[in-house]
């Protein structure tokens, strides 16, 4: 069977290198190279970008990224069994693929790349949200990346793009939408993966904003949303009591009813309250 890049089909790669999927590493592989090329295209113009890929596995998405013209790909893979398969991909794309055998939670690869940098990954589900939160909360804004194009469990994707009034709306939505444009660009059924997971998945594309959508201090906003959503069914005058002793006055000052609940308050309201509290 011919492939987008002349390399062997992924089923064959997995057989040759005996890459039996390990559940504890979140290994659900994408084997359709047309699909991985499509995901790569969702990341925007790759020809002028360096790409960080977390968890390349047998290399399906990596090959999609390279075939779609990524200037360079730096792939971080924890499972050493995948390295020989990835070395074959690197050989087919001289000078464009570097693979690091490491835990993505433990290294900072940014000094090896030149901007603009995009992150594209079919993330291991067990570390996906943690990595996303890290990428969304750098010490300084704008961050080192231009965009994140990431596969999540569909339920997590829905939480990232959720709007007020919905069950999915919470800290993750506020964090993502405060400083990025976040969109679900693709949903995938379990059968798209080998082995199929139990749940549906979705790709989210987050494009960074140069400035936060509304001004606020990141630490105050984080404290506020943690308190508000840790007790999301409570009225704000009660859930936010610990944040400021005169919280009712502060809420009134920014036009929020103290009887409202966290999930009723839009991002703009939380930012206004964060500014009021930081005064
Ligand atoms: N990108 C491949 C694909 O689309 O077919 C594989 C995706 S699979 C969902 C997740 C990959 O992340 C696996 O290859 C797994 O070994 C790797 N992985 C798991 N935890 C990791 C970590 N902490 N750091 C780096 N890679 C990790």
Which key features would you list for this structure?
single chain; 279 residues; alpha/beta; Rossmann fold; Helicase, Ruva Protein, domain 3; 2 domains; 7-stranded mixed sheet; two-stranded antiparallel ribbon; 11 helices; 9 strands; elongated; binds S-adenosylmethionine
* Overall radius of gyration: 21 Å
Number of domains: 2
What is the averaged pLDDT score?
A: 96
Number of helices: 11
**Which residues sit in consecutive blocks of at least 5 with pLDDT less than 50?**
none
Corresponding CATH superfamily of the largest domain: Vaccinia Virus protein VP39
Write a structural description.
This protein folds into two domains: 10-208, 3-Layer(aba) Sandwich (Rossmann fold), CATH 3.40.50; 218-278, rRNA adenine dimethylase, C-terminal domain (Helicase, Ruva Protein, domain 3), CATH 1.10.8.100. It has eleven helices and nine strands. The protein has helices spanning 10-16, 33-42, 60-67, 83-92, 125-136, 154-161, 171-179, 218-230, 236-239, 247-253, 267-278; strands at 29-30, 50-54, 72-77, 97-101, 117-122, 145-153, 180-188, 193-194, 201-208. Helix 2 packs across helix 3 and helix 8 crosses helix 11 (267-278). The longest helix has 13 residues, at 218-230. It is elongated. The model has no long low-confidence stretch (mean pLDDT 96). The structure holds S-adenosylmethionine.
